[in-house]
Design a protein that fits this description.
Layout (H helix, E strand, L loop, with lengths): L1 E3 L2 E5 L4 E6 L1 H5 L10 E5 L4 E7 L5 E3 L2 E3 L3 E7 L7 H12 L4 E7 L7 H9 L4 E3 L8 H8 L3 E5 L6 H8 L25 E4 L5 E4 L47 H7 L5 H16 L7
Parallel strand pairs: 3-5, 8-9, 8-11, 9-10, 11-13
Antiparallel strand pairs: 1-2, 2-3, 4-5, 6-7, 12-13
Helix pairs in contact: 2-7
The chain binds guanosine-5'-triphosphate, magnesium ion (MG) and zinc ion.
Zinc ion binds next to helix 6.
C-alpha cells in the first residue's frame, strides 16, 4: 500500500503489516513497488518480512507503481497549466503496458480547458472534466474508476490529492498552495500510497511531476512509439514507405491526417519529441 524509508506496508485485508524486505531483493536488484502483490512472513506483532513479489501485470517508474489497470492523468487549464507533452509521454507509456489511460481535467471552476478536452476526447480517450473545489464531475469520475486499481498522476498542484479528498472526504489528504508567481505546485505529496474507496476502487496518490521534468524518458525503442498514439493506428499501414518513422517522410499518412486536422498537432508534436529522444539512446543502454 505504501513504501517509506525502507518499510513496506502490506494490507492483508484484516490489518496493515509493516514489513522489511529480505536481503535477496537488494541482491537481485529488485525493488518492491506500491501495487505489488507479495508473499510475506507475518511476525504477529504488526511487523513482517517480505519474501516474494508475485508476477506483475505491469510496472511504472514515474510514478513508481505496479499492477495498474487505469492510469488517471490529471490535467488543468488553470495554474499550474498542464504541458500536453507531459500528458502524452505518460499516456504513451501506459498504452504500451496494458493499462488504460484516462484524462481528467480538474479546476473546471476556473478554466474549462476546451482545447485539452477536445484534443483527448477526439483522440479516443475517456476524458472527464471535474472540479475538486465545487464537486462538479466527481460522481462521473467515481463511476469511471469503480472497482479498478488506478494511479493518479499529473504535474504538481494540479489537484490529485484534492480530487481524492473530494471522492472520499474521510481521507483528509494534505494539499498545497500553488505558487502564483512561479505558476507551479509545491510538491506537497512526497510518497506513493494506495487508498481504498468505498466503491471498490483502489487509487494511488503520487507525487506530481515537475514542469521542468520534460527531458527524462523511459528507455524505449523508437519503432514501438507510433502504436502508443492510439489515434495514429488507423494510418500506420497507409504510409508510402514501409518502416516510415512519421517524422518527415514523403507520403506519410500520419502527417497527412495531422495536416487535415484528424490528428491534433500537439499530439503529433509530442510523438516527434519522444521519437527523437528514443532515437538518441545508444544501443548499449537498452539492455
Ligand atoms: N479552484 C480550484 N482549486 C483547486 C481544485 N483542485 C485543487 N485545487 C487547489 O490546488 C492546489 C493544489 O492541490 P493539490 O491537491 O495539493 O495538488 P496535487 O496534484 O496533489 O499536488 P502535488 O501533491 O504537489 O503533486 C490546492 O490549493 C487546492 O486547493 C479545483 O478543482 N479548483
Ligand atoms: Mg498531492
Ligand atoms: Zn508515416
Amino acid at each position: 500500500m505504501k513504501a517509506l524509508s525502507g518499510f513496506y506496508y502490506v494490507d492483508t485485508g484484516a490489518a496493515l503489516v509493516t514489513c522489511r524486505a529480505r536481503g535477496k531483493f537488494r541482491h537481485n536488484k529488485q525493488t518492491p513497488l506500491v501495487g505489488d502483490r507479495v508473499a510475506f512472513t507475518d511476525l504477529g506483532d504488526g511487523t513482517g518480512a517480505l519474501d516474494d513479489i508475485l508476477p506483475r501485470r505491469n510496472e511504472f517508474y514515474r510514478p513508481a507503481v505496479s499492477n495498474i489497470e487505469l492510469l488517471v492523468v490529471i490535467a488543468s487549464g488553470a495554474i499550474p497549466v498542464t504541458d500536453p507533452f507531459l500528458i502524452d509521454r505518460v499516456v504513451s507509456i501506459a498504452e504500451s503496458r496494458d493499462c488504460e489511460p484516462i484524462i481528467c481535467i480538474n479546476k473546471c471552476d476556473l478554466d474549462a480547458a476546451e482545447e485539452l478536452y477536445r484534443t483527448y476526447q477526439g483522440a479516443g480517450f475517456t476524458t472527464i472534466r471535474v472540479s475538486a473545489e465545487t464537486g462538479e464531475g466527481i460522481d462521473l469520475l467515481r463511476q469511471t474508476i469503480a472497482g479498478k486499481t488506478c494511479a493518479f498522476t499529473g504535474n504538481s498542484g494540479v489537484g490529485k490529492s484534492s480530487i481524492l479528498n473530494a471522492l472520499e472526504p474521510a481521507f483528509g489528504l494534505q494539499t498545497g498552495e500553488v505558487s502564483e508567481k512561479l505558476g507551479r505546485g509545491r510538491h506537497t505529496t512526497r510518497h506513493v500510497e494506495l487508498f481504498r474507496l468505498s466503491n471498490g476502487a483502489v487509487v494511488a496518490d503520487t507525487p506530481g511531476f515537475s514542469s521542468f521534468d520534460t527531458e527524462w524518458e523511459e528507455i524505449r525503442r523508437p519503432e514501438e512509439l507510433p502504436a502508443t498514439f492510439r489515434e495514429f493506428r488507423p494510418y500506420l499501414d497507409q504510409c508510402r514507405f514501409q518502416g516510415c518513422a512519421h517524422v518527415k517522410e514523403k507520403g506519410c499518412a500520419v502527417r497527412k491526417a495531422m495536416r487535415e486536422g484528424r490528428i491534433a498537432s500537439s499530439r503529433y508534436e509530442s510523438y516527434v519529441r519522444l521519437y527523437e529522444q528514443a532515437k538518441e539512446v545508444p544501443e548499449w543502454e537498452r539492455k
